[in-house]
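Re: the request from the purification team.
They wanted to know what the chain is likely to look like in 3D before they choose a buffer screen. I agreed to run a prediction and write the result into the notebook, where they can find it.
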Amino acid sequence: MSVRSAAKYLYKSREFVNKWVQRYKDTKCVDDLPDRGSKRSTTAREDRTIFQVFSKNPQLSLRKGQAVMARRSININIMTLRRRLQENNIAWRSMMAKPLLSRKHVRKSVGVGSFKY
């Protein structure tokens, strides 16, 4: 089968098919090569520190955890922090989306005289 007909059959570009044909010729395998993708932004030591902090204090939110990490000279993004915790099945607390209603708000919505709190 030619590269052109393979590309048409797969609904891919000829460059795409050429790349995989060349990879097969070089390695005799079409599996993805190891160490592909983005590099980890944290080291193994930093990962252990994250796990220790969140294991000792499961009530810690991600933002407070980020502040604790900053005090330990580990600057880490919240999404990276979340990813590391999810990889190891460690729980964390999320902040409330909005504050709860206060007594004043409840009285205002129901009416002053009709509701006893």
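For the purification team: Helices lie at 3-10, 14-27, 44-56, 62-71, 78-87, 103-110.
Please add any questions underneath this entry.
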